[in-house]
Specification:
single chain, 259 residues, alpha/beta, Rossmann fold, six-stranded mixed sheet, four-stranded antiparallel sheet, 11 helices, 10 strands, 38% helix, disordered N terminus, binds adenosine-5'-diphosphate, binds magnesium ion
Length: 259
């Protein structure tokens, strides 16, 4: 194995340098630099409006779907800058998938919801079957739906729908999953199931979880990154940030002064 192959497998999956997002007259993200190692779950926390959603949308080029926003800086995925003009954003979004705040289930069957990204690339039926089964298993939904794959996905509970959205992202074999407050529309029992799914997934993927729930960050993350008005003000192992925050702002946030 040559040196560069070693670097590829041991180095960060995502490496962000000076990531800045501007609206016409406002700075939404201000020069964020951060590496994401393999098999890690980073919680991104901060008060409402601090730029969490903008941050994750900038990590898979979804931010450019919003007119008027400009991105500067670099986001390296396995060593390649995803903002390089030669890179196809659709491929970026397969490797770096996104799960939204509310489940984005389509009015079709459970199976076809999970198969969505594979149908777009005209995958063979056998490959679709295999990938959908594996994705539903990894998303922790298989046992609940395996006998009902042809039923309408909209008949599932909210928590099951959110795990189905996770399965849809997994089915196209990404390396990174971005989750933007994935449990904020769910009840406590459904939240607990999604948290269990995320814990299982961090063995295999890089997970970046936006949450305003400090308890959730404590339960599932290895590392916490704190944003304040578009700036990364503190990042460290979850326990350190929660028990020994370096910044006054972090301490105020985790003690609930902003809730
Ligand atoms: N398209 C846009 N144009 C201008 N400002 C925006 C746009 N999108 C978001 N913002 C502003 O950027 C800030 C960060 O938003 P957002 O990333 O959604 O924060 P969070 O997810 O932490 O609540 C907010 O003040 C929001 O109003
Ligand atoms: Mg948000």
């Amino acid at each position: 194995m040559n040196a560069s192959a070693t670097t590829m497998s041991d180095g960060p999956v995502l490496s962000i340098e000076g990531l800045t997002v501007r609206a016409k007259d406002r700075l939404l993200l201000d020069g964020i630099s951060l590496d994401f190692p393999p098999h890690s779950l980073t919680a991104v926390v901060g008060p409402s409006g601090c730029g969490k959603t903008t941050f994750v949308r900038a990590l898979n080029r979804m931010v450019e779907l919003t007119p008027g926003l400009r991105v500067e800086g670099q986001v390296h995925y396995l060593g390649q800058n995803i903002y390089d003009p030669s890179v196809n954003p659709v491929l970026v979004r397969r490797r770096i998938g996104m799960v939204f705040q509310r489940p984005t289930v389509f009015p079709t069957s459970i199976f076809e919801n999970a198969a969505f990204g594979l149908r777009i690339v005209h995958a063979e039926d056998e490959e679709v079957d295999r990938a959908v089964t594996e994705a539903l298993q990894q998303a922790g939904l298989w046992d609940e739906v395996k006998d009902d794959l042809d039923r309408p996905a909209l008949a599932l509970s909210g928590g099951q729908q959110q795990r189905l959205c996770i399965a849809r992202a997994l089915a196209v074999r990404p390396r990174v999953i971005l989750l933007d407050e994935p449990t904020s529309a769910l009840d406590p029992a459904a939240t607990q199931r999604v948290e269990a799914t995320m814990l299982g997934l961090k063995e295999r993927y890089v997970l970046i979880l936006v949450t305003h729930n400090v308890g959730q960050a404590a339960r599932v993350s290895d590392r916490i990154a704190v944003l304040q008005t578009g700036k990364l003000i503190e990042v460290g192992p979850t326990e350190d940030v929660l028990e020994r925050p370096r910044e006054k702002f972090t301490e105020q946030f985790i003690t609930g002064r902003f809730e």
